[in-house]
Write a structure and sequence with these properties.
The protein has 18 helices and 14 strands. It has 462 residues and is an alpha/beta fold. It has a 6-stranded parallel beta sheet, sandwiched between helices. The structure holds nicotinamide-adenine-dinucleotide (NAD) and uridine-5'-diphosphate-glucuronic acid. The site of nicotinamide-adenine-dinucleotide has 27 residues, from helix 5.
Length: 462
Amino acid sequence: MIKNICCIGAGYVGGPTMAIIAQKCPGIKVTVVDLNEKRIADWNDPNVDNIPIYEPGLSAIVAEARGRNLFFSTEVDKAIDEAEMIFISVNTPTKTYGVGKGMAADLKYIELCARQIARVAKTDKIVVEKSTLPVRTASAIKSILDHTGNGVKFQILSNPEFLAEGTAVEDLLAPDRVLIGGDSNEDGQKAIQSLVNIYANWVPKEQILTTNVWSSELSKLTANAFLAQRVSSINAMSELCEKTGADVNEVARAIGMDSRIGSKFLKSSVGFGGSCFQKDILNLVYIAKSYGLNEVADYWEQVIIMNDHQKRRFAKNIIKTLYNTVSGKKIAFLGWAFKKDTNDTRESAAIYVADDLLAEQANVVVFDPKVNENQIYYDLNYLESRAEEENKKGLTVSTDPYAACKDAHAIAILTEWDEFKTYDWQKIYNQMQKPAFVFDGRNLLNKKELEQIGFVYQAIGS
Ligand code: NAD
Ligand code: UGA
C-alpha cells in the first residue's frame, strides 16, 4: 500500500491532480514540489483564494486537504526521498532550439527529474509519467534511472492526464477513464496495481484502463490530436458557411445528432488555444517524420495549418470590415484567456489577433475577468513582433468592460466568458463609435438582440 506520494511540478496538472488524490485518499501523504518558489508560496497562501491556478471548485478542495495530507514545498530531494511513488508532472513545451526546433517536445525538464530521482533515491520507487510525452520516453527515463541510480529498483508507469482547464475538478472527480500503462512482467503489473488502487478510491474499476506503456503514451497524443482535429474540421466548415449562407451552428447541430459523430467539440471558434493541442500535434508530426511516415505527418500538420488560418482570417476580417483600415481605431477585446473559466492564456487566439491588429496600428483595449495586465503584456512581448514600449502604446488593459468598450469602433469576443452575455449591450452600444461592430469569435452573443440594438454583428461561420 502506497503511503507517501511526491509530485514534481506544481502546475495546472500537478496541483489539481494531487489535490484530488489527497482529498480522496486521506491516508496518503501527498507532497507537491516545484523549483518555482513563488508558485509554491502561492499554493501555501493562507488565503486559499490566492492559489496560483484558478479552477472552479479547486480552492475548496485545497482548503480541505492542505496541511492535513497535502503539502506544497520546494524541498524536492526530501520529497523524492520519502516517497514510494513519484509523479513527474513538469512542463514539456515545444523545443525552441536545435534539432526538432519548433516541433519536438523539449524533454530537458523530464530528464532533469529522472536524474534527480536517480541521485536521491535510496529505496525502490514507482515513477509515474503524468506529463504528456512522446511515445517511448519511458525507455529513456528507465535508462537514466538504471544507469545513474544507487542500485535501487524503479518501475516506470505512464498515467497521462486528460483533464481540461476550466473543468479540471469535474474531470478529475469523474474522469471518462483513467489510463495506466506499465510493463507486462510481474513487477510492472504490481506497480500498475498500486496505482489502480489509488484511483479506485473514487473511480469505478471498469473506467480504469491498463495497457502497455507505449500504448498509454501514444493514446494521450492521439486523444489531443483527435480533439483538435474536430475543432479544425468545424472551423474549416465555418469559412465555407460564411461564403454560402449556411450557418455553422446549424451544421454542427445537424451533424452532432448523428451518434457516430457526437455533439461535443463541434463549436466553431477563432481557433483553439491552450498549452497542449498545438504542442502535442507538432510533437506527433515530428515523431511520424522521424519514422519516415511523411503522409501521416502531413495529415496531422494540416490541423495546425487550419488553426493558424482561422486566427489570421479573424483579424483580417476585422480590418476589411472596418473599411480596410484600423489605424488609430479603438478595438475592444472581451476575453484574453484561451477558454472560459481559466486564467491560462497560453497560445490563446487573442494573442495572435492582437498582434495582427497592432501591426495595422490599431489601439487595442483588453478586458478579461481573470487575466491580469502583466500576463497580457508578457504574452504579447513573447512574440517579439515589436519593441515592448510599442506594445504598451498600442495595447492597454482595462479592468472594466464598459470602459474598455467606450468609444470603440469595434468589439471582438475572444473568450466565451458567460458574464459577457449578461452585459447591458444597449449601454455599450450608446457609448461606441458608429457604426458599432461586434466580431464574435465564439458564437457567444445573440445576433438578433444585438442587431436590434443597432450593432453590425458578425459571428464566425454565419
Ligand atoms: P505547468 O508549466 O503549469 O507546470 C509545470 C511545473 O513544473 C512548473 O511550475 C515548473 O516550475 C515545474 N518544473 C519544471 N521542471 C522542474 C523540476 N526539474 N523540478 C521541479 N519542478 C519543475 O505545466 P502543466 O500545464 O501542468 O503541464 C504539465 C504536463 O502535463 C505537460 O506535459 C502537459 O502537456 C501535460 N498536460 C497538461 C494539461 C493542462 O491542462 N495544462 C492537461 C493534460 C496534460
Ligand atoms: C485539452 C483536452 O480537452 C484535454 O483532454 C487535455 O487533457 C488537455 O487539452 C491537455 O492535454 O492539455 P484544454 O486545452 O484545457 O484541454 O481545453 P479544451 O476544452 O480542450 O479547449 C482547447 C481549445 O479548443 C480552447 O481554445 C477552446 O476554446 C477550443 N475549442 C474547444 C473550440 O474552439 N471548440 C470546441 O468545440 C472545443
